[in-house]
Each structure stands twice: as C-alpha cells, then as structure tokens.
Amino acid sequence: MPSNLGKLILRVMLGGMLLFHGIYKLQHGIGAIKAMLAAHGMPDMLAYGVFIGELVAPILLIIGFYSRIWAGVIAINMLFAIWLTNFSGFGSLGSYGAWGAETVMFYLATALSIVMLGSGSYAVYRD
C-alpha cells in the first residue's frame, strides 16, 4: 500500500507541475519553441506536440490512465527540450546555486521512474 501511495504522489506531482507549463504555453503561445525547431532545421509544426507532452499527458498521468505510456511521452518531450536548448544549463549553476538543468532533469527522471514503476493501485487504468 505505501508503494501505491508513492506512485500516486509521483504521478500527481509530475503531471500537476508540468501542466502549469502547458497552460502557460496555451496562454502565451509557442513561438519560442517554433523558433528553436527552425534553428535546428526542423519543421515548426512539430511545436504543437508540446501540447500533447505538457497538457494531454499530464492530465492522463494524474488520473492514471495508461500512466507508463504518458510518462514515456513526457520523457520524450523532456529529451526534445534538452536538445532544443542545446543542453544549456548542464554545466552551470542557476539562481541560488541550483543546477541549470535541474527542472528538465527532474521531469525526465520522474517520468522515467513512472515508466518503470507503473501507475499503482490508485489509477483509472492500472499498468
């Protein structure tokens, strides 16, 4: 039972925190992502995938619907974020001594943990 509660906490925290990023992009647009894709020679249409990775996936992860799959989508989204920002932050400290890549690595590691652990008992669909 405690392990199922831990899995629920992982899902809700990852999904809940990432959802704010998706809402921000809904409100303010994805122009910056389009520009980063263009700088890497990729079609800017791919930028709309951020809505799947930062809106759809977090919501379905929170409720526990095919959690492993949606956590995998989030992990892929984070790998793209790392690549598109040219690994910026990996070798630097940010404000107040935080690692420059702390946030994206938190999301990536948590998503990969859910891929490996599954959703637990407190989920719409247990995997």
Describe, in plain words, how this protein is organized in 3D.
- It is built from 5 helices and no strands.
- With 127 residues, it is mainly α.
- Helix 1 (2-28) runs antiparallel to helix 3, helix 3 packs antiparallel against helix 4 and helix 4 (67-84) packs antiparallel against helix 5 (102-117).
- The longest helix has 27 residues, at 2-28.
- The mean pLDDT is 94.
Whole-number count of domains: 1
Mean pLDDT: 94
Helix run count: 5
Order of helices and strands: HHHHH
Low-confidence stretches: none
Strand content: under 5%
Tell me the total number of β-strands. Answer: 0
Key terms for this structure?
single chain; mainly alpha
